[in-house]
Hints:
single chain; 252 residues; mainly alpha; 50% helix
Amino acid sequence: xxxxxxxxxxxxxxxxxxxxxxxxxxxxxxxxxxxxxxxxxxxxxxxxxxxxxxxxxxxxxxxxxxxxxxxxxxxxxxxxxxxxxxxxxxxxxxxxxxxxxxxxxxxxxxxxxxxxxxxxxxxxxxxxxxxxxxxxxxxxxxxxxxxxxxxxxxxxxxxxxxxxxxxxxxxxxxxxxxxxxxxxxxxxxxxxxxxxxxxxxxxxxxxxxxxxxxxxxxxxxxxxxxxxxxxxxxxxxxxxxxxxxxxxxxxx
Length: 252
């Protein structure tokens, strides 16, 4: 008796069903449900960049960013906050540097849909760098125009900066200047900005508290000014609206 057995076809590894279950650590911009090989590689690189930032490995994160920024799938302008982090010298220290300020000034012109947030971030970095006058000049340039004029946070920043610059110069000793010595013109401008912020946001605690503080300062006898200021008529005229820009900015 003879038996004829038909041989079974061999099983090859590449005949297994394709598994599209890829796991990633961070949400990817413009994510697609069925990514191709290139998009998977970009997502892996995106994970490496964000993980490196979390681990404070900024050199590795910058190398990943330099690759992603050249890819057409990545809108690097929309990730401007991450760009600020990559420009830091030390991720553990909150500080600013000229590169970060120049970067934010460029993003302010390149990304109009985020300009309010970028301007607020730029002002904070000016303050961190000790450039208080530059921060105030930047706000005075943009606040008269839309949409900045309707942002209460920016008006609060401008008011607080006016209060800061109204203080006596550091070179003047405590025995030479009375405690009530302030620049009355700067205090008047601070009141204008803070009142505008409160009109836009009546529940703004910062604006309310500093307006109360300014009122108490103005009631003190012997309020002096260490800088020349405008007459009462000019101050009343300027009180109708925030001061106009003192410089022009090129759109190029």
